[in-house]
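User: structure tokens for 60S large subunit ribosomal protein eL13, please.
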Amino acid sequence: MVKKGNAPVPNAHFHKHWNPTGSQKGHVRCFFKQGPQKKIRRARRQKKAAAVFPRPVKGPLRPIVHCKSQRFNMKTRLGRGFTTLELKTAGLTDRRYARTIGISVDRRRRNHCEESLALNAERIKTYLSKLVLFPLKAGKKLPEGVTEEDIKNPVQSKQDGFPKASSYGKNALKPEAPRKLTDQEKKRLTFQFLRKVQRDTKMVGKRIKRKAKKEAKAAKEAAKQK
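Assistant: Done. Predicted tokens:
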């Protein structure tokens, strides 16, 4: 094609190289192995389950965290590990011991709200209530709550025994039941009200410091007058 004026050189490639004997052989890939691959993946899962038996198939327990950014923070997913505060709230003081019983730990993560702290602490407590610890050596005393039948007939958990991470965002906070609006709510300007709540939440720390500073100044002036 002849170039006219100050225009870009056409460089659109619309011809796909379907010819198996051409110079560009193999540039168009087709996936005809989806059926066999399904069987292969299943066999791999069974092999992994047998290798880690009687530990859970899905690996160590992980916390429920919210996704990053304002766009995705309403969604939940599985995090890297539990915080030290979540472990202490659940009754585990040693994070190294927590790792040995199948609980993942992340020292860098921090808790920013009471809801996530309570949710993940309850997740750990539920896991500990279902946990069966085997003795490290034969002939040793069995841990508390473990019987001989539990060791002879161990049950491997295919799932971790908890709902999916995505379901926590829907069920953690139940919506309020429908009701009639009050007269005060009808007169309220919703946008300004939400902005005020957001501003109050953001400025709570600065306002507490400012109030304490004023009280200290007033007390100092009162002491001078005496």
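User: Anything notable?

Assistant: The longest strand covers residues 64-66.
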